[in-house]
Write a structure and sequence with these properties.
By secondary structure, the chain is an alpha/beta fold. The protein has helices at 5-46, 106-109, 119-129, 146-155, 200-212, 214-229, 243-262, 284-293, 299-316, and strands spanning 61-64, 67-70, 75-76, 79-80, 99-104, 135-138, 164-168, 266-269. It is built from nine helices and eight strands.
Length: 317
């Protein structure tokens, strides 16, 4: 005797439910396996602890009585902070008399370079090959503004007694306004614990998709720029950098030079390099990548200010 229609429907619904549950379980297993593989790869390549809670390299900092700076002994991915709070190999006491301190933001820190190919490490290699026994320490970090760099040198890094201090500025930071150093905090309350867990595979997949599909990456930049400018006044976006920002940049740069002299070191200033110098206008997609970082200025204003700042750097030097 055959089953009734209602029994057939119930049986069919049960099969679909079991299949749905199996698909969800399978998807969860795949995500768990992917996350495990990403964390295992990070451990094999960079010795990042498998259970590390840091989300990205920007969280390798702390705020204390000397201001915001990298956490000594911390690491994430290819970025390793040594015992004195600078990126790269440990400080060499035998070369302390010829210590070179490199200051700056992302470019100095080596955000996009392969391990040991950031320019401070290349400088150290070149000095070694030339027979100059210098101890090159990379004290740069992502997003460090000029006032923060000066404060870090004055309150913390001066203890390293550098003989030479090299500063590579990021002038477009002033296109967002006049940056200020984060106020030091000796209470210990300013530090926030990192998230207990972070889905590293999600970040990895997101970045891979952007690199595989440039159109998607450019659309995301346009969306972020529009979101940052939404609801602002018509004159909020700088078409050219105001004189107040140029004056502030020069004053802050002179203050840094004074601090370098005050700790008994010799300053070396480096002009900021970019792909637009001496070139005809490039694709708007490249300009948008810069505008996304500094949405308060147009791409043309950023290029112009970079050129003006190079003249200020030379004048101060």
């Amino acid at each position: 005797m055959s089953n009734s229609p209602s029994e057939n429907r119930a049986s069919g619904d049960g099969r679909w439910l079991r299949r749905g549950v199996a698909a969800v379980v399978l998807l969860l297993l795949l995500l768990v396996a992917a996350e495990a593989m990403v964390r295992l790869e990070d451990w094999i390549r960079f010795r990042t602890p498998i259970g590390k809670s840091l989300k990205d390299q920007s969280e390798l900092t702390e705020l204390d009585a000397t201001g915001r700076h990298p956490v000594p002994g911390s690491r994430f991915g290819k970025w390793h902070i040594n015992a004195v709070g600078t990126r790269g190999p440990e400080a060499d006491p035998a070369r302390a008399g010829a210590r070179v301190l490199m200051l700056g933001a992302s470019e100095t820190f080596g955000l996009y370079e392969s391990p040991d190919h950031e320019y401070p490490r290349q400088l150290a290699d070149s000095l070694d090959r030339s027979g100059c026994a210098a101890d090159v320490l990379n004290a740069g970090f992502i997003g460090m503004s000029l006032p923060t760099v000066e404060q870090d040198l004055r309150l913390r890094l001066r203890a390293l007694t550098p003989r030479v201090v090299v500063y590579y500025p990021t002038p477009p930071q002033y296109a967002e306004g006049i940056p200020q150093a984060v106020a030091p905090d000796s209470s210990g309350r300013a530090n926030r614990p990192a998230p207990a867990w972070h889905f590293r595979f999600g970040t990895r997949a997101y970045n891979q998709l952007k690199s595989m599909f440039p159109v998607l990456s450019d659309w995301l930049r346009q969306r972020d720029i529009a979101a940052a400018r939404r609801g602002t006044a018509s004159d909020w976006v700088f078409q050219s950098v105001p004189d107040s920002q140029r004056v502030a940049f020069e004053q802050d740069l002179r203050r840094l030079v004074g601090t370098i002299h005050a700790i008994g070191a010799t300053p070396i200033l480096v002009t900021h390099a970019n792909g637009f110098v001496g070139q005809p206008p490039l694709d708007n997609k490249i300009l948008r990548a810069w505008e996304r970082q500094y949405p308060r200025a147009t791409g043309a204003a950023l290029v112009n200010f970079d050129s003006v700042a190079a003249g200020i750097i030379r004048q101060v030097a």
